[in-house]
Amino acid sequence: MTDTPPPAYAGPARVLSGVQPTGALHLGNYLGALVKFTRLQHQMETFIFVADLHAITQWQDPARLKGQVREIAAAYLASGLDPKVATIFPQSAVPAHAELAWVFNCVARLGWLDRMTQFKDKAGKHKERESVGLYTYPVLQAADILLYRATHVPVGEDQRQHLELTRDIAAKFNHDFGVPGFFPLPEAVVEGPGARVMSLRDGAAKMSKSDPSEYSRINLTDDADAIAQKIRKARTDPEPLPDTLEALAARPEAQNLVAIYAALDGRTSAEVLAEYAGQGFGVFKPRLADLAVAKLGPVGEAMRRYMSDPVEIDRILAAGAERARQVGAPVLAEVKAAVGYWAG
Ligand code: ATP
């Protein structure tokens, strides 16, 4: 006898994702997340938020946080998100995220969270000194996604494990509260050569906002000189580029620069190698710098333009928050009823 699988979620396809306002956005955020948001907004209903609840899991200067939220919103708009098409909002303006996260804290198992590698990476050797919020960060992330019953989550490779946890939480909630198909089991949209952009200092760590070295990343607000200088200084070896992906894989720094070129140019790494195999970095780096300046320069300029009008950014964020609250409210109400809250 075989078990009949529970009925699958039957609602519409929806996209949800977000970025933390923890500092200047970099090329990894752009290729791993922002470019995909912009593409997907025309395919499915799209919700993109600024994750200020997530940001405070590690210390943020309260005097700067609001400005950082606006900066992320400006980056969204500059990379092509259209507030008439996508719902763009700050997480803290929709209290239902935190309310749903509490329910999910009671659904998720400690053993599941103990396996999360991002917590281990961020906490390093002294995990007992980190906030409890950093530990339960992926549970809040599950609430962000499932509050809107999102089915597709465009993220970088680093978030894949958190998405698996979201699926586990959704399945356990549906099962435990006897509501099969209530939440979808969302899919991570992770693909292409920009899914894991590595640090320019060493091809082993991911490019990150919180890396103390400015030369590890290219920021969206860097000017042409800074972009060219960072690419020039990126760590590489003296060998020419190889002609196979297998040979490239043995050289992580080279592989990273080729992947960045491919992602910026809308090509595959194999296509880039076909053009540059046999060439040294003396040739490749200036070409990469020209491409990066051509693609990122207009984004940085548009960001500065949006940032010069914070009133307009706040208007967009407030309108987005209103819409997000409307979509999330009935889902949270059903969750409360399913759980059996007095106020449900
Ligand atoms: P922090 O260093 O503060 O943790 P971060 O740079 O890792 O920040 P997040 O705000 O955690 O950025 O991530 C925002 C989005 O950007 C996520 O979808 C994440 O997967 C994606 N992303 C982050 N870093 C990279 C990277 N190096 N390559 C590709 N995608 C990335």
UniProtKB/TrEMBL annotation:
Q: Which GO terms describe its biological process?
A: tryptophanyl-tRNA aminoacylation
Question: Which reaction is catalysed here?
Answer: tRNA(Trp) + L-tryptophan + ATP = L-tryptophyl-tRNA(Trp) + AMP + diphosphate + H(+)
In terms of SUPFAM superfamilies, this protein maps to: Nucleotidylyl transferase
Which Pfam family would be a valid example here?
A: tRNA-synt_1b
Residues binding L-tryptophan, per UniProt: D144
Q: Where in the cell is it found?
A: Cytoplasm
Superkingdom per UniProt: Bacteria
EC numbers: 6.1.1.2
List the record's Gene Ontology CC terms alphabetically. cytosol
Q: Where does ATP bind?
A: Q20, P21, T22, G28, N29, G156, E157, D158, V197, K206, M207, S208, K209, S210
Major location (coarse) = cytoplasm
Q: Where is this motif: 'KMSKS' region?
A: 206-210
Q: Which UniProt keywords apply?
A: Aminoacyl-tRNA synthetase, ATP-binding, Cytoplasm, Ligase, Nucleotide-binding, Protein biosynthesis
Motif mapping: 'HIGH' region? 21-29
The GO terms describing molecular function are: ATP binding; tryptophan-tRNA ligase activity
Complexes and interactors: Homodimer.
What does the UniProt function comment say about this protein? Catalyzes the attachment of tryptophan to tRNA(Trp).
The record's NCBIfam families line, in alphabetical order, gives:
trpS
Q: Which family does it belong to?
A: Belongs to the class-I aminoacyl-tRNA synthetase family.
Please give the name of this protein. Tryptophan--tRNA ligase
Supply the source organism for this entry.
Phenylobacterium parvum
Q: Which gene encodes it?
A: trpS
